[in-house]
UniProtKB/TrEMBL annotation:
Residues 20-96 form the Thiamine-binding protein domain. Belongs to the UPF0045 family. It comes from the Bacteria. Coiled coil: none annotated. InterPro entries: MTH1187/YkoF-like, Thiamine_BP, UPF0045_domain. This is Uncharacterized protein, MTH1187 family. Pfam families: Thiamine_BP. GO terms for cellular component: cytosol.
Length: 101
């Protein structure tokens, strides 16, 4: 299982102030449809699941941004992919919180 930190920034000439949030909202609609676990943060979206599934969804999201009128899509991906033990968003947070106690 992988945990992926995803930032997709889409823009068109017509986008004014707050134009980016419509793209973020659409990304989350797509993620909701997939059933992949995901968490919106103020700066990115964290997705948990099979790495192939996540890559496929990223491609779908990118294409959807262009369908919505984006002229440019900039994507940043950070991947934590473990195969020796379970890796989850919740587990990563717990590991840090345990050390804070």
């Amino acid at each position: 299982m992988a945990v992926v930190d995803l930032v997709i920034s889409a823009r068109s000439k017509e986008d004014g102030a707050g134009g980016h949030s419509k793209y973020v909202a659409e990304c989350h609609r797509i993620l909701e449809e997939t059933g992949l676990k995901h968490v919106l943060t103020p700066m990115s979206t964290v997705v948990e699941g099979d790495i192939d599934d996540i890559f496929n969804i990223i491609r779908i999201i990118q294409e959807r941004m262009y369908q919505m009128g984006a002229e440019r899509v900039y994507t940043q991906i950070r991947i934590d992919d473990r195969r020796d033990k379970d890796l989850t968003i919740k587990g990563k947070l717990k590991a840090v919180n345990d050390k804070l106690k």
